[in-house]
Amino acid sequence: MGFISGIVVGILCGIALVYGWSQMMALRSRKREAKAADIKALGSLSRDDLKKLCGDNFPEWISFPEFESVKWLNKQLTKLWPFVAEAATMVIRESVEPLLDDYKPPGIASLKFSKLSLGHVSPKIEGIRVQKQKEGQVTMDLDFRWGGDPSIILGVDARVASLPIQLKDLQVFTVVRVIFKLCEEIPCISAVVVALLANPKPRFDYTLKAVGGSLTAVPGLSDMIDDTVQSIISDMLLWPHRIVVPLGGVNVDISDLELKPEGKLMVTVVRAKALKNKEVIGKSDPYVVLYIRPILKVKTKVIDDNLNPEWNETFNLLTEDQETQSLYLEVYDEDKLKQDKKLGVVALPLKSLQPDALTEFNLNLLSSLDTLKVKDKKDRGTLTIKVLYHHFTKQEQITALEQEKREIEQRQKLKESGAIGSTVDAIGGAASQVGSGLGAVGSSISRAGKFMGRTVTNQFNSSRRHS
Length: 467
Fold this sequence. Notes:
Organism: Rhynchospora pubera
Order of helices and strands: HHHEEEEEEEHEEEEEEEEEHEEE
Number of strands: 19
Pfam family, one: SMP_LBD
Membrane topology: Single-pass membrane protein
GO biological process, one term: lipid transport
Helix content: 25-40%
Strand content: 25-35%
Number of helices: 5
Family: Belongs to the synaptotagmin family.
């Protein structure tokens, strides 16, 4: 009897232990699920949300990295760099050298590479950010850094002297946007789009040094080269402008990747007041250069001997991305013997404009758009303009694309005939009134892919040290 009762008690105790253990495990499981739900909810909060919850107790060690680390990719890039650098050098020489000729500033007869090597130091990708995907596309942003050892020498043939200019200590800090167009055939990518994001501003730092001479041999040469570099990069690469490179062997429509005109900007340059006088005898002879792309500049007529000129001239310019683009206006003093002097410059962001609403602006002129270069804080006068932005319909967009080709062809013919020194020269007079203003249309230039550059935004920083 005692044996049987012992067995029963043992079984009951075992059942009680098993039941208690299962209840404890279930309780722990519920707690873990509750914690996981809380962590998931916290994970969806932004930095601002957490600061509101934590107040002054917000821990500074909490970070929200936008870019994912890719150390493995940098290791592979270091191994591949000798081959990548050789191929990239060929592409740059074939595609950029013709652009140097198109964008060369007044006073420079020839600008080309005398020597070009990207060196032995590979770039570094600090991280990758994958954007929201469109159907059939993958978009990635690469945090790109390069402090390389390239050997770049530009052969500069100016009117007063010819000398080689070495570009040293090149450092690049920018975010590169890469878009892959997907397809069903191997290698599953039909085209690649490359562009530089305007925010944060791309930074290109370098030193200019004359080889066997002095930079002072050609007055203003440093600024000329700097402006040329800025124009090419911003006009060809700065988002929304992009390079579209179709991959060989895959026949697919890539028109959706190319930049298209979004609207038209009608600009009336009305007048300027209290301009700064640059003449020793008499007064300045001002005119205004306006553009959205440097390669499609237009200008007003010259008003002689007047610091309060009135033009009342109207031009039409194409826009491709109202959110990121700006209208640039530069006022110059014409000098028939020397290079024209800049009286002031100003930029008007297009995102501030309301569609189909005529707006008048009184803009204060600055000595430079780069605040780091502004040394002269004196008043340079005001420029009055009237602006009307019109958003294109689909049919208007097609018409603008057709007009675009005609305008670029006209610029090329003027350049070949010697009427203008380069395609970035501003055109005025009767030529500027074609289609209610030359510069109404942008262009695409095919060089080692499709350079779909449109409109300068000048949103990057280029700093130099001269030796």
